[in-house]
Amino acid sequence: MSSPGWAGDKRAALRRRRCWTTVSLVCAAVLVTTARAEDERAASRGNLQAKLSYCKDCHGPSAQGYFGYFPIPRLAGQQTEYLENQLQAFIEHRRTNNVMFNVAHSLSPSLISALAANFRDLNPPPLGGAPRQNVAAGKRIFEDGVPEANVAACAACHGPNATGVGEIPRLAGQLYPYLVKELINWGKERGQNPTKPDTSAIMSPVAHSLTRTQVEAVAAYLSYLR
Length: 226
Hints:
Layout: H1 4-59, H2 80-91, H3 98-104, H4 109-120, H5 135-144, H6 155-158, H7 176-184, H8 186-189, H9 204-209, H10 212-223
Helix pairs in contact: 1-4, 2-3, 2-4, 5-10, 7-10
């Protein structure tokens, strides 16, 4: 017959073996989960880099914008909330642009946020190129508005350096022809879905109250700001 002490030792050994087996299984599960999470993060980083490269094919290697038949805007240094909102606006047809709709509707919310954060951190010099003789007049409009047309100073919303805040965009360094095009055609390109009110509605009376000459002046001034 076995002694009571031997039986107790055997039971203790079995408990230890079960404990170590459980620990080993838990550790293996943790390692597998960690490896999968790392793979997912790597895939996500790869997807982000692929999308960034795709965006920069049109918006420039530093997202500084591109002078072409259709001017492509600067994204560098742009407010993240504004970029996120505008990508969603393309998806919801609050902004009309078939190319950008096709780009934006394939992006997940997390990828949109990651793209916006990446562009926010870029700071290439502005491309400039606007008529220099209009800059002084544009500076007055930006800082003082056009009182006789009941147009408030642009700086009141976009900030003294035109860097924007939240959903209010950065205008500093934006391409001159793009700014002119957007302001002249504001009512045709923004707020196009009446079922989904757009924050761009606040700009409608401003854009409609500026003359072509005033639009070109303020766009020239903004295009040279860093």
